[in-house]
Amino acid sequence: NFLKGFKMVYTRMVGILDNLGVKEIPVEGKEFDPNFSEAILTDHDENKPENVVLEVLKKGYIYKDKLIRPAMVKVNK
């Protein structure tokens, strides 16, 4: 029951932030952009192109086209 309640609060909070204009930056699988992301780790995956985000370690957010927090990511090298 505690987890169910926590998920309800989380969903409600995300909805409120979304209505206010706070959006998550979608970076996974896209080319690394230093304007919206910080490369914390690098890895090598032969199946994916170079300089592509492999994994999001910490989500990034924007508010009305202003960066609140950059995403912390793992980049393919």
Q: What would your notes on this structure say?
A:
The protein has one helix and six strands, in the order H-E-E-E-E-E-E. The protein has 77 residues and is of the alpha+beta class. The strands form two sheets. The chain has a three-stranded antiparallel beta sheet. A three-stranded mixed beta sheet has the order 2-6-3, with no helix packed on it.
Short description:
The protein is α+β, with helices and mostly antiparallel strands and 77 residues long. The chain has one helix spanning 2-20, and strands at residues 22-24, 37-43, 53-58, 61-63, 66-69, 71-76. The longest helix is centred in the first third of the chain and has 19 residues, at 2-20.
Gross geometry: globular
N to C succession of SSEs: HEEEEEE
Given helix and strand content, the structural type is alpha+beta
**Distance between the first and last residues' Cα:** 44 Å
Strand order, sheet with most strands = 1-4-5
Features:
77 residues; alpha+beta; three-stranded mixed β-sheet; 6 strands; 25% helix; 38% strand; globular
Describe the SSE topology.
Layout: H1 2-20, E1 22-24, E2 37-43, E3 53-58, E4 61-63, E5 66-69, E6 71-76
Parallel strand pairs: 2-6
Antiparallel strand pairs: 1-4, 3-6, 4-5
